[in-house]
TrEMBL record:
This is Chitosanase. Its EC number is 3.2.1.132. It catalyses: Endohydrolysis of beta-(1->4)-linkages between D-glucosamine residues in a partly acetylated chitosan. Pfam families: Glyco_hydro_46. It is found in: Secreted. GO terms for molecular function: chitosanase activity. InterPro entries: Glyco_hydro_46, Glyco_hydro_46_N, Lysozyme-like_dom_sf, TAT_signal. It comes from Streptomyces triticiradicis. One of its GO terms (biological process) is carbohydrate metabolic process. GO terms for cellular component: extracellular region. It comes from the Bacteria. Keywords: Glycosidase, Hydrolase, Secreted, Signal. PROSITE patterns: CHITOSANASE_46_80 (PS60000), TAT (PS51318). Aids in the defense against invading fungal pathogens by degrading their cell wall chitosan.
Length: 271
């Protein structure tokens, strides 16, 4: 279950997917399609989901989070689902729109006007009192679960993996990108994923540019920690310091199991 001190909501969400994503810094070269399997390998992707859930939900059971919903007081309205879709940061609206296109008349469809009104704010107007209960009802529907999976992939996972492959970084590096996009989004502010990556590139070259992978990953994580410390909600950097840094120090660039890490003082293991 989320608690306010561990929630990692994004400063700026990818509100313009489609064309902006094609033109934006997350897009990889076409050569990436020929790259070897990385974080998008099904077994590695499952590990990624568990790693993120350990930080977002203090649990490795990421599939239990479809039904999760609460307002954690971070200024982003309701936070819900497997990736922390927020009513104030556009991605929750897009999720419910997708679900409604696939299943008209679903239990959440009636909230679409309210979700459009509160987008960009922390308001619950038009959502209370029934929205949380209806979200949990919807989460029992496999169609809604699939919609959450698909939006997670479209907005966060797939673009991060493409960019990682384009930069020549392996499975672990692709995960560091994904986790950063989940937390920071890829907007135009100084703590977005794109800004974090640019800050790293100013200090080290990625393998695709002839650089050393470990050196570059450390530069990226340094930039990530800087970005996290710019906002109180992210000031605990243990998801980097005692998780991702551990894997980098061990040079586990393929994110091979077993994995042992800590987040917010809690220990986790994947065998």
């Amino acid at each position: 279950m989320h608690t306010p001190h561990i929630r990692t909501s994004r400063r700026t969400l990818l509100t313009l997917i489609g064309a902006s994503l094609v033109a934006g810094p997350l897009i990889a070269s076409q050569a990436a399609t020929a790259s070897p399997a990385g974080l998008d390998d099904p077994a590695k992707k499952e590990i990624a989901m568990k790693l993120v859930s350990s930080a977002e939900n203090s649990s490795l059971d990421w599939k239990a989070q479809y039904k999760y919903i609460e307002d954690i007081g971070d200024g982003r309205g309701y936070t819900a689902g497997i990736i922390g879709f927020c009513s104030g940061t556009h991605d929750m609206l897009e999720l419910v729109e997708l679900y409604t296109r696939r299943k008209p008349g679903n239990v959440l469809a009636k909230y679409l006007p309210a979700l459009r009104e509160v987008d960009g704010s922390d308001s619950h107007e038009g959502l209370d009192p029934g929205f949380p209960a209806d979200w949990r009802r919807a989460a029992q529907d496999t169609a809604f679960q699939q919609a959450q999976n698909d939006e997670r992939d479209r907005v966060y996972f797939d673009p991060a993996v493409r960019q990682g492959k384009a930069d020549g970084i392996g499975t672990l590096g692709q995960f560091t990108y994904y986790d950063a996009v989940v937390m920071h989004g890829n907007g135009d502010d100084s703590t977005s994923f794109g800004s974090i990556r640019r800050r790293a590139l100013a200090r080290a070259k990625p393998p695709a540019q002839g650089g050393d992978e470990v050196t570059y990953l450390n530069a990226f994580l340094d930039a990530r920690v800087w970005a996290m410390k710019q906002e109180e909600a992210h000031s605990d950097t243990s998801r980097v310091d005692t998780a991702q840094r551990v894997f980098v120090r061990k040079r586990n660039l393929n994110l091979d199991t077993p994995l042992d890490w800590k987040v917010y003082g809690d220990s986790y293991h994947i065998g």
